[in-house]
């Protein structure tokens, strides 16, 4: 007799509804498919979401693009050093290299898996120009400490908030904390998606102006401005060799509707995280830290760490989960282990003991809004059975 095998549960899936589809169709029918009215509307809606209608929001085609534009706008260049965490995706660091500057990787706090504040201060040299904190998994970095260090040493701060929508620190949303710029990602597996996309947020009008010019070839007027101006004009000036980083209206259409659903998405993520916290508490695992009381964790990722007495290695655990039809992932293979970063800076695991140990034991289990309660239960049952409970 054969038993029905439940379908494979992927590690992540976006939740796209009829509203998103209708808005995208509207963009397609409108004839305006590149950056236009929907991108403008999405930027305004994003500022509203942050509770600060006047904040500058610059929609781009990825968070990587947004990080690059932010660092370019603050003048990062050859000879400069930028400090960031080794425990991140390579995009956080690669943008520094695009500008010819150098990356200084530091270790994490083993409790939060966020950048170690003391390690930032220890890594500052006369060449240091900026810090890129990453709100890992959706838990806020202690930005008050980071901004304090930056002030003391005259450094700039660009937040990689790819995981942090919405995340709060002392009740303030990430994006409004007063760094030079904060960049969100709308990649397919993030807390909301535009397919590909990102948003650069800043209160610095000059920085925003530079980013707007550089996101479209270094052109001082974008196509939408030119075609909708009172005097339609073919005229523009190129003021710098810019990039092609603008967000299309097709992507922005998705974003407009996803943003409306974000509070509901957050609730669902919080409910799944709470269910995992409860159902996995007695296992030989280090569960992910929640935000301090009153603050919001976006729960972009739910990262388990196998305890010393778990009785199974990380790779074997992931294979067993896969055999049970459940996709898992690892966030991240630290940058100090990646050939490019390792070899360029001669990095050794011993320099990053907390990141290294966390990496060796960590597993991200599925947490996304399209999961049903039965899916969540299935993940719990699988983890429990592998750990022998
Ligand atoms: C997803 C991600 C990025 C890059 O986002 P894109 O929109 O894909 O460019 C950058 N940093 C971190 C930490 C990420 O998780």
In summary, what is this structure?
Helix content is 39%, strand content 13%. By secondary structure, it is of the alpha/beta class. The strands form three sheets. The chain has a seven-stranded mixed β-sheet, with helices on both faces.
Q: Could you characterize what this model shows?
A:
The structure is a single chain. The chain is α/β, with parallel strands linked by helices. It has two domains: 18-259, 3-Layer(aba) Sandwich (Aspartate Aminotransferase, domain 2); 262-386, Aspartate Aminotransferase, domain 1 (Alpha-Beta Complex), CATH 3.90.1150. Helix content is 39%, strand content 13%. The chain is built from 13 helices and twelve strands. The protein has helices at 18-30, 37-49, 63-73, 90-98, 117-123, 143-153, 205-214, 223-228, 249-279, 314-323, 339-345, 353-361, 373-386, and strands at residues 56-60, 81-85, 102-106, 128-132, 156-160, 168-169, 172-173, 181-185, 198-202, 285-286, 302-306, 362-365. The strands form three sheets. It has a seven-stranded mixed beta sheet, with helices on both faces. Strands 10-11-12 form a three-stranded antiparallel beta sheet. Strand 6 (168-169) and strand 7 form a beta hairpin. The longest helix has 31 residues, at 249-279. It is globular, with a radius of gyration of 22 Å. The structure holds pyridoxal-5'-phosphate. Pyridoxal-5'-phosphate is lined by residues 62-64, 88-89, 91-92, 134, 160, 162-163, 185, 187, 198.
